[in-house]
């Protein structure tokens, strides 16, 4: 993919939500056979709140919604972790250092981290759903003294599908942080010394009092569904379970109706919802 020289666009997002900010790929991290993280340097900082998403454009090809996977305390360099699933993401996986992509946004709702202060924060995710959760986790780590504890539980299909592998050791050094992983299965020839089983098996060992603590879930729809049901069974309140709803989106700001979820637009009312908000809407897990 050839680099495309683009002018620096300085429109106010509120006035022009289609404004595209050019961003240079400064690093590519191959996380797994299907997932890679692009480290991007936008032509100007893009302040965002953790949980919000951006639209990433491959010039001449198309665009798609992705949640930054980096801390919201850093706005001049953004990480996006992207799974190869189709047309646009296939091109993303061919991109190389020095290429220019476009970014629009940020859009949508955020994780209300001020409500997490003083609490035991539980984060549960799987697959590429770990992308927004890494952003949340790194944002919380930045001021980890504000939270009683942070427990990050991560699932993947197999050891080779685990992402953010190199960061686990660092994360585990933080005094009030627990980071645990599981894989669905260990195929012959791969080695693994941590838990085996689907992501929800990690919930069996938690000792957090669910009465008034928040839990945040993101992952494939089936994992979101069963993760939420397990948390409810464990005693978490519906209003304390936060879900990132990655529905089909186009415009990103409430114009095209592609992301309608009952009475909500996933792009502008979400993507972050509490389970209490959306539990009665149709087909939330599809
Ligand atoms: C708010 C939000 C945040 C997201 N964050 C990330 C992220 O951080 N990392 C990441 O890898 N993906 C993320 N996604 C999903 C990502 O947008 C899609 O995988 C991507 O747009 C697919 O584009 P494509 O052209 O490659 O696929 P297409 O060729 O359009 O489709 C290929 C397959 O992907 C499915 N698909 C397409 N769009 C979406 C979508 N929006 N959500 C779920 N499945 C879709 C299609 O149904 C089809 O099965 C996010 C989606 C939303 C709505
Ligand atoms: S993506 Fe267009 S209305 Fe939500």
Whole-number radius of gyration? 18 Å
Largest sheet: 7 strands, mixed
Separation of the first and last Cα atoms: 33 Å
The number of helical segments is 5
Question: What is the number of E strands?
Answer: 15
Shape descriptor? globular
Task: Tell me the structural class.
Answer: alpha/beta
Strand order, main sheet: write it out. 10-9-8-7-11-12-15
Instruction: Tell me the helix content.
Output: 10-25%
What is the ordering of alpha helices and beta strands?
A: EEEEEHEEHEHEEEHEEEEH
Overall pLDDT score: 92
Would you kindly provide a written description of the structure presented here, covering whatever features stand out?
- The protein is of the alpha/beta class and 286 residues long.
- Helices cover 15% and strands 29% of the residues.
- The chain is built from five helices and 15 strands.
- The strands form three sheets. Strands 10-9-8-7-11-12-15 form a seven-stranded mixed β-sheet, with helices on both faces.
- It binds flavin-adenine dinucleotide and FE2/S2 (inorganic) cluster.
